[in-house]
From TrEMBL:
InterPro entries: LysR-type_TF, LysR_HTH_N, LysR_subst-bd, WH-like_DNA-bd_sf, WH_DNA-bd_sf, YidZ_PBP2. Belongs to the LysR transcriptional regulatory family. This is LysR family transcription regulator protein. It comes from the Bacteria. It comes from Celeribacter indicus. PROSITE patterns: HTH_LYSR. Residues 12-69 form the HTH lysR-type domain. GO terms for molecular function: DNA binding; DNA-binding transcription factor activity. Keywords: DNA-binding, Transcription, Transcription regulation. PANTHER family: HTH-TYPE TRANSCRIPTIONAL REGULATOR LEUO-RELATED, TRANSCRIPTIONAL REGULATORY PROTEIN.
Length: 323
């Protein structure tokens, strides 16, 4: 970044930096103006002042929108970081009242995070913070860090492998259990909460649930079986466990799923739960956020809600903070 650019940035007022950030995110002057509650002519005039101050076009109009120049790309991160830190500093000195707050929080959630925590969170907010809005953002796992880094998301929750440059808290762990049709369980002699015999388990027709957070070669069940030179016969692979309540009844299929998925499934179908005849790696759930939000009182209150959730299917005894 050249000396002229640095001098230009040092002399800019905060509103111009906000406009730059809005155009960079929206790729549109009119959309940026709407985002900042400005008129489009005012936004265009401000962009011209910004261009003159930095000696660069910053954004070039194309068919797909306002594309940033190389200079704009190089300063976007520092500008966004600076705006976030200013906002965090302001929030730090402010009180937060959940009953009156109208803030919006954006969540990234893996399947187990979404299925287990979002419903519980909304019940809490309905009584404790009815004006807070939640948006669950769908994104590839490999994009989570960038979305947190650049402020597109406030939290990530689920089974995650994420850089230690973020704040991370292990909030729960759980084991895997076997689910099958109640009628079929009776036919093969599998009682509720019993340990299913190893040879029987291998001989059954399995549904494998491979979520975004579970690569095919790293499913805890198959990893454990490989250690014993065992292999199950998988006849159906699914991306979500939530549909099992419509698949297992009336079939000879079995599914091995995380503990928290079991209660919602059994509420919708007549299923039997059995225990595995071997141990697997536990499923650990992390709550992740950016360090700049550590002192944000509203953000801190939200973290407390996740920590306080009563999760009957989880082992909460091993919780620890890292990062």
């Amino acid at each position: 970044m050249g000396e002229k650019t640095m001098n230009g940035l040092n002399n800019l007022d905060l509103n111009l930096l906000k406009l730059f950030d809005a155009i960079y995110r929206e790729r549109s002057v009119s959309a940026a103006a709407d985002r900042l509650n400005m008129t489009q002519p005012a936004a265009s005039n401000a962009l011209n002042r910004l261009r003159q101050a930095l000696g660069d076009q910053l954004f070039v109009r194309t068919r797909s929108g306002m594309e940033p120049t190389l200079l704009a790309q190089s300063i976007a991160g520092p500008v966004q970081q600076g705006l976030k830190e200013i906002g965090a500093s302001i929030l730090e000195g402010m009180s937060f009242c959940p009953e009156e707050s109208e803030r919006s929080f954006t969540m990234l959630a893996t399947d187990v995070g979404e299925e287990t925590y979002i419903a519980a969170l909304m019940k809490i907010l309905e009584t404790s913070a009815p004006n807070i809005d939640i948006r669950v953002l769908e994104a590839p796992l490999e994009d989570y860090e960038n979305l947190l880094e650049f402020g597109y998301a406030d939290f990530a929750i689920g089974r995650l492998e994420i850089s230690d440059r973020f704040m991370r808290e292990h909030i729960a762990s759980c084991c895997y259990s076997v689910l099958l049709c109640a009628q079929y369980a009776e036919e093969i002699g599998v009682a509720e909460d019993s340990v299913i015999p190893y040879e029987l388990y291998l001989s059954l027709r399995h549904v494998n649930v491979l979520t975004r957070a579970t690569p095919a070669n790293r499913h805890p069940v198959d990893m454990a079986l490989r250690q014993m030179n065992g292999q199950r016969r998988v006849v159906l692979t699914l991306p979500h466990a939530s549909v099992l309540s419509g698949i297992l009844p009336g079939t000879t299929l079995v599914a091995t799923v995380p503990g928290p998925a079991i209660e919602p499934l059994r509420a919708r179908a007549n299923l039997v739960q059995a225990r595995l005849p071997f141990e697997t790696e536990m499923l650990h759930v992390l709550l992740v956020w950016h360090r700049r939000q550590q002192l944000d009182k509203g953000h801190s209150w939200m973290r407390d809600q996740f920590r306080a959730m009563p999760m009957t299917s989880w082992d909460l005894s091993d919780m620890r903070a890292t990062g």
